[in-house]
Known about the structure:
Elements: E1 5-8, E2 11-23, E3 26-37, H1 46-60, E4 65-69, H2 72-75, E5 81-82, E6 96-100
Parallel strand pairs: 3-4
Antiparallel strand pairs: 1-2, 2-3, 4-6, 5-6
Amino acid sequence: MLSPVAERSGAIVGQVGVSATTIGGQGNWALIGPMAALPEAQSQGLGSALMSTALQYLRAAGIAGAALVGDPAYYGRFGFRAWPGLKLHGVPDRFVLAFPFSDNVPKAEVSHHEAFVLEP
């Protein structure tokens, strides 16, 4: 779908991936991740800027909302939270977060591309 990047002096120092997903078969959702910044670019607001850019784009595109796997304490500042019934196979429910752009939050399994599955 998209992958906003942050640059300094022509070099990429951070990025966030955003892909299309479904939740319980309901389309028009986005899955966010991974988000990363080089160590020397961390703790400078770069992640917040990347996330804000991604969310602004998704809202403008008419996407229903975004989901991700992450720390509720960090992603809560952007509007993400755990929702009853929202699940992702193999991930504790408290880390499966969503930010709906309306009152409609599916209570189902979040789908993701097989490329995001780590095999032992």
